[in-house]
Write a structure and sequence with these properties.
Radius of gyration: 24 Å
Strand content: 25-35%
Shape: elongated
Number of domains: 3
């Protein structure tokens, strides 16, 4: 017999989902059969699998060690050590925490963490061998004692939203399954408000809202945008129906040749902000993929601007219930990188009330 005690990190999920996580090689039919025969029990009682487990609950599995290990896909039981795969993952996370510099923690509680990623760091792996914020997160939590090595067999902390490699700013991270479910939910229903700051070419004097359909060219890693006006509601091609994008912008500070904009991102698609702004004639400073090369070259030579000046600087959480009441309605803001200050020029006008009104 092997006993698993439910921790707060594993709570509030269905029992059968939990069993699939700890016994990934067991089929659903087999697990339900074991539940019926009481070879798997919840708090020493027969269970059906649909029960919601809570912190402190006890799951007992009456298998031989050999059978249990086979369904867990492990060579040793969790308390006896880690498998070679686990050790490789741990070494990778420790290396990321040691080698990736410039990441800071803006906020952290039991379930979630808001990290501030510098430009140049991947949010998640792009290729085997990469070190990204995802591995840094686990390395940080191991180093701080927030996560024990044995817990990683059942849940791995993870980044929940991606920023382009060369876009810095706030990244949402889940420390627990409950945190992952909450963050995933508010990202899907778009109740989390996300704000960026960016310098764009030209003077922008009024706020605006841009909509469209985003097409991605995988081979070239570029996107193009079809305007909403190109289609009626009933004639949007199937390939574009899930590629709707919506971007709001508001001028904060206009200068001789550029404007500091606040962007509200209503949808989150690859390259959305950069392509949308370039499409209305105001490309992002430092963006060589969609921007103005000659203009970028001037700032590259004078101020060493080597990547797009686009920064995820603020998030505002919706109303949330326990255990996330401490986040309910709260706004978090990261300080803009020094390069934003270095490139600032003579002011034409200043808008003094950022994200004071809704674009919708």
């Amino acid at each position: 017999m092997y006993r698993f005690e439910i921790t707060p990190k594993d709570a509030e999920q269905r029992l059968d989902k939990y069993l699939h996580r700890i016994l990934p090689l067991a089929e659903s039919g087999f697990l339900h059969k074991m539940l019926r025969k009481k070879n798997i029990t919840l708090n020493d009682r027969k269970a059906e699998g649909g029960e919601r487990i809570a912190a402190g609950d006890s799951v007992k599995i009456f298998f031989s060690d050999e059978t249990l290990l086979r369904f867990m896909g492990r060579k040793t039981l969790p308390e006896s050590g880690q498998t070679e795969t686990d050790l490789s993952f741990l070494r990778e996370c420790e290396a990321a925490y040691e080698k990736i510099r410039g990441v800071s923690v803006l906020y952290e509680n039991e379930h979630v963490l808001l990290a501030v990623k510098p430009a140049g760091v991947l949010s998640q792996k792009a290729a085997r061998g990469d070190l990204s914020l995802n591995e840094w997160l686990t390395g940080y939590l191991l180093a701080s004692g927030a996560v024990a090595k044995g817990e990683l067999a059942y849940f791995k902390p993870s980044v929940c939203n991606r920023l382009d490699r060369n876009t810095g700013g706030i990244v949402l991270c889940a420390k627990t399954l409950q945190g992952a479910r909450m963050l995933g939910g508010i990202l899907r229903d778009r109740s989390l408000r996300k704000y960026y700051r960016t310098y764009v070419k030209g003077n922008v004097r009024e706020a605006g809202l841009i909509e469209g359909y985003l097409k991605k060219d995988e081979a070239r890693n570029r996107v193009s945008i079809e305007p909403v006006s190109a289609y009626t509601a009933s004639a949007v091609p199937e390939s574009l129906r899930h590629a709707y994008i919506k971007t709001g912008y508001r001028p904060i500070r206009a200068e001789a040749d550029k404007t500091l904009l606040e962007i509200e991102l209503f949808t989150g698609k690859p390259h959305q902000i950069r392509a949308h702004l370039a499409g209305i004639g105001h490309p992002v400073l430092g963006d060589y993929k969609y921007g103005d090369r000659a203009w970028n070259d001037v700032y590259r030579k004078k101020f060493q601007v080597r990547g797009q000046l686009l920064y995820a600087y603020s998030v505002v959480f919706p109303q949330l219930e326990a255990p996330f009441a401490d986040l309910s309605g709260r706004a978090f803001t990261a300080e803009l990188p020094e390069i934003f200050v270095k490139v600032a020029g003579a002011v034409v006008f200043i808008e003094t009330a950022p994200h004071s009104a809704s674009f919708s």
